[in-house]
Amino acid sequence: MKELRLMKGNEAIAEAAIRIGVDGYFGYPITPQSEVLEHLMAEKPWEKTGMVVLQAESEVASINMVYGGAACGKKVMTTSSSPGFSLMQEGMSYIAGAELPCVVANVVRGGPGLGTIQPSQADYFQATKGGGHGDYKLITLAPSTVQEMYDFVGLSFELAFKYRNPAIILSDGLIGQMMEKVYLTEYKERWSDEYINKTFPWATTGRAADRGNSIITSLQLQADKQEEVNLRLQKKYREIEDNEVRYELINCEDADYYFIAYGSSARISQKAMELAAEEGIKVGLIRPITLWPFPTKIIRELGQKSKGVLSVEMSAGQMVEDVRLAIEGKVKVEHFGRFGGVIHSPAEILNALKTKIIGG
Amino acid sequence: MSEVRLEDIIKPENKVYSKTDLLTDTVMHYCPGCGHGTAHRIVAEVIEELGAQNNTVGIAPVGCSVLAYNYFNIDVQQAAHGRAPALATAVKRLMPDRLVFTYQGDGDLAAIGTGETIHACNRGENITIIFINNGIYGMTGGQMAPTTLPNMKSSTSPFGRDVEMMGNPLKITELLAQLPGTAYVTRQAVHTPAHVRRTKKAIRKAFDLQAKGAGTTFVEIVSNCNSGWKMTPVDANKWMEENMFPYYPLGDIKIPAE
Q1: What is the interface pTM, i.e. ipTM, of the complex?
Q2: Cβ-Cβ contacts under 8 Å, B89 against chain A
Q3: Dihedral pair phi/psi, residue A280, rounded to 5°
Q4: Which domains does chain B have, with CATH numbers?
Q5: In what helix (H) or strand (E) does residue B237 lie, and over which residues does it extend?
Q6: Where are the beta strands (DSSP E) in chain B?
Q7: Using one digit for the tens of pLDDT, what is the confidence trace for A2-15?
Q8: What is the pLDDT of residues B29-48, one digit of tens each?
Q9: What is the pLDDT of residues B92-107, one digit of tens each?
Q10: Fold match between A3-243 and A247-358?
């Protein structure tokens, strides 16, 4: 029988890391995600699986520890919340440029600046459009349950190694802090040195005499060579866009309107959908699971044939730009969301549908 | 007297020096007279002597030695500016049996990377940090570094470093020696054969101590930057002896108890 446990979202990330055989976690405390590091330190995974856990001196250091570990072909990760994730952007750009696999979870809080410790979805642009300098993309997964916080750790590593690209779990303070039941998986062994050496010849495992020396760098001083690097990256990104789009459709069979919402907002929108149904308004929910690659195609297919689309996000309106690109002006698209740490209610979402889309 | 021909000279029995195979054949981009090439050679020779080519990971910085990975015939990671000790921390903790070292300049290590340097040393990360201090940002064209001497001219202190305005040069090596995490802290130079020998001994000692798990080992090499200092190589070495060494005295600062 599967092991079932009541856990916080942040604890689920930490527990998943131990059980799927992550090699190293490097993190720095910040509310509302500190339970990840706390859970790992309490569980002492170095005694169970040999996993390295280290509290770094800053988010700048922790992302660069992730860079060093990823360059060795190890499964390494960090987690943070918005201000800390901002500090990591230099490292993210280097990791993307050097084409290294790693996983970073951002348990988003309200901003800008020090902002608030309450939940927010206002880091959408930062996660899905690159975030640091240069043309790069991060595979971005948006969990909407504590179970998905757990499951997406493994999925993120799978995608990160498949494409040699960083993967982001874009969560928020609500899912990080709330407790739900989680089905846990069996403990998996960490990859052996032999497996890493055989499978990832690019990795700097210190075995230069066996296979010639490996170099991990994002530097290419010659402009035409750097353009070649960028063309290779863009080719990879198109491949990810073609193959890795994930989404969930709820009540979309004969909907007149659609909510587009991810993470916490998707759950609140689901309740708003029920309220709408009670009033005879047929609303479907398209829940993007990957925010990049964005489920443009399905939103286009369904949305263009609808009477209007409401993009719901705890922000001043970020994802709505991608929804509008998908709909191509064919039907009305509006954004609704409370922000700065305020969580919208189902009634507010329904009201926004009525005023901005149906009656707008 | 018979004519001396080249093929009479170039013979195996006349060979007195070979480049270690741990340096690649790539032509170095360093300026003629620069200490980096010599420092690279010493590091490569020590790794060869230890038979550690198949057991070593180096971390290159941002600065003049950013392309160090082109010259070492070992696995190398190229770090963001100042972050090399963070990378080395993870590499060593994930692969504790490997020899792990960073190679960093003064701007990288003592300005933008001060936090990473101090905390790696304070945790006693079992890595070796090789620190080239030439008192200037060479790669970017001779700007003021944290280690630029008082009144020393640079492109961002064109009238000399005014310590009232710009602060004093940072003796980060003495500072790091105060931390319980550092096992061996020394300051050397590479501008004469005698100093090259001493530096090689120091790097060997640092790597040996790392193999014993002693803690952080730190080798500063006070070096020149004739391009940035706007001097001939010979004058630069003389200026270094007369000005840099009094401020950054050579020798061991911290040695482990036997």
Answers
A1: 0.96
A2: 54, 61, 65, 68
A3: 80, 15
A4: 22-254 (3.40.50.970)
A5: helix B233-239
A6: 56-60, 75-78, 99-105, 128-133, 136-137, 143-144, 182-189, 216-222, 251-254
A7: 899 999 999 999 99
A8: 999 999 999 999 999 999 99
A9: 999 999 999 999 999 9
A10: yes
Task: Give residue B8's pLDDT.
Answer: 87
Q: How confident is the model at residue B1 (pLDDT cuts 50, 70, 90)?
A: low
Which amino acid does the sequence have at A235? K
In this complex, do A208 and B73 lie within 8 Å of one another by their Cβ atoms?
A: yes
A76–B86: do the CB atoms touch at under 8 Å? no
Q: Does domain A247-358 have CATH number 3.10.560.10?
A: no
Q: Which residue of B21, B65, B77, B179 is the best one to mutate when testing the A interface, meaning the one whose CB has the most A CBs within 10 A?
A: B77
| Residue A168: pLDDT over 70 | yes
Size of interface A-B (CB pairs under 8 A): 130
Domains of chain A, by residue range, sit at: 3-243, 247-358
Facing A68 at nearest CB: one of B69, B72, B88: B88
**Helices (DSSP H) in A189-222: which residue ranges?**
193-199, 208-211
Looking at domain A3-243, what is its CATH homologous superfamily? Thiamin diphosphate (ThDP)-binding fold, Pyr/PP domains (3.40.50.970)
> Over chain B, what is the mean pLDDT?
96
d(CA A63, CA A26): 7
